[in-house]
Amino acid sequence: MEDGSQDTFGRRDVRELLEDTYAIYGKNFLVLLAITATLYALYSGIAIVADLGLGYSAGMATPTYDIAAAISTISAGLAYIWIVMLASTILIPVADGALICGTAQYAMSGKIAYGRAYKQALRRYGTLVLTTLLQGLALLLLTITVIGIPAAIYFAVRWAFVYQAVVIEGYGVAEAFSRSSALVKTNWWRVFGLMLLWVVILVAL
């Protein structure tokens, strides 16, 4: 593994990072869209089918004072949430991992192979899912109380590169969190700013 102090591609300012991102996604839009859409579309389909099958949205849209109907709607809601969370845990880490692998392929060779991206991500499937669960649980527990929210933000930034550590560098779960923390250690505010900028861009779109 490379030492965290090494910088293969050189330090980039925000403008250069945005230009690089635009160039990668502009040149490879269709293949990156295919990588992202494959499992996200399946996830959305599962959520829609679960909603229709359980009648959750229909129950919520129909006001009722009947206790039995209210209990049925709540039960349907809990079942829907469970199904959606399970589908998300199973599918989304692979989609995100494949997207990371694809962009890494472009950085290294100038080409992105759909099948290879998913193959590389699936090879690390168990570690990706476990990493997602631990990261999500830790951040959820921190945000339960108001005083834990700043800590949740702090660790969310420190752990920004756990997926990259898993699928690109081959680290295990614990090592991936340590690796991401080491990468962010002296650049926390910079990474936070970039993450915030990315959120603003997504909201604007």
What report would you give on this structure?
This protein is mainly α and 205 residues long. Helix content is 80%, strand content 0%. The chain has ten helices and no strands. It has helices at residues 14-27, 29-54, 56-61, 67-109, 114-123, 125-143, 149-158, 162-167, 173-184, 188-204. The longest helix is centred in the middle third of the chain and has 43 residues, at 67-109. The two termini are 37 Å apart.
Query: Please, what is the oligomeric state?
Result: single chain
> Could you list the spans in which at least 5 consecutive residues all have pLDDT below 50?
1-8
Largest sheet: none
Shape: globular
Query: Helix/strand-derived class?
Result: mainly alpha
Query: How many β-strands, per DSSP?
Result: 0
Helix content: over 70%
How large, in whole angstroms, is the Cα Rg?
20 Å
**In percent, how much strand structure appears in the residues?**
under 5%
Summarize model confidence as the mean pLDDT. Answer: 85
Q: What string, H for helix and E for strand, traces the elements in order? A: HHHHHHHHHH
The number of helical elements comes to 10
Straight-line N-to-C gap? 37 Å
